[in-house]
Amino acid sequence: MSKKRTTDLTRRCTWCGDDPLYVAYHDSDWGVPVHNDRKLFEMLTLEGAQAGLSWITILRKRENYKLAFDNFDIDKVSAYDDSKFESLMGDAGIVRNRLKISSTIDNARAVQKIRQEHGSLDAFLWSFVNGETQHNKWKTVSDIPAQTELSVQLSKALKSYGCRFVGPTICYAFMQSIGMVNDHTTDCYRHRELITLMGSGST
C-alpha cells in the first residue's frame, strides 16, 4: 500500500523528464496562480524568449535574465535606452536576439499602459478567466492544445497595447505557466494539488 502511494505522489507530467531543474519547475512553479505584476512580466518575457527554443534552455538562463533585466522591474525596463539595449546584446547569459530583447523593452512599456488602464497587469490578465484558474482534465500530454480560443483573444488584446512575441501559442504557454489554466495531466500528482491550492492562496 505504501509503495503504491509513493508511486502516485511522484507521477508527473511526462514533458518534464528527469532533469532536476525541469522537475523543480514542474513541481513548484508551473500552473501555480501568479498575481504579482513583476513575476507576471517575468514569465511573459521568458515565454517570448523561448520562441524557437526549448523551455529548458530558458530555465537554465532564468537567473541570468533576472540580473540582466533588473529583476523584471517594469518601470526600470521600460526606461531602457539604446546604451542599455547594446549592453544586453552583449550579455552571453541571455538569448542575444535583437527582436526578443527589444520586445521585452516594448512589452514593459505596453504593460505600463495596461496598468494605467486596468490598475494592474494581474487584473487585466486574470479578467480573461474571471479571476479563477480553469482546471482542465487532459489524460496525456498529446491531448493538450497548443493554443485555444481564449489564448487567441489574449494575444489580440496584448498586441493592441503594443506587446510583441505574444502570439496565441506563446500566450497559451504563458497562461499555463502562471496558472490561468491547470494543464497538468490528470495522472500527475500536481493536478490534484493545484486544485487544492486554489483555496489556500497563490504567489
Structure, explained:
- The protein is mostly helical.
- It has one domain: Endonuclease III, domain 1 (Orthogonal Bundle), CATH 1.10.340.
- The protein is 57% helix and 2% strand.
- It contains 12 helices and 2 strands; from the N terminus they run H-H-H-H-H-H-H-H-H-E-H-H-E-H.
- It has helices at 2-9, 20-28, 37-50, 55-60, 62-68, 74-78, 82-89, 98-118, 121-126, 149-160, 168-177, 189-197, and strands at residues 134-135, 181-182.
- The protein has a two-stranded parallel ribbon with strand order 1-2.
- The protein is globular and about 50 Å long.
- Residues 1-7 have low confidence and may be disordered.
Largest sheet: 2 strands, parallel
Cα-atom Rg, whole angstroms? Answer: 17 Å
The name of the CATH architecture is: Orthogonal Bundle
Query: What's the helical proportion of residues?
Result: 55-70%
CATH homology group: Hypothetical protein, domain 2
> Proportion of β residues?
under 5%
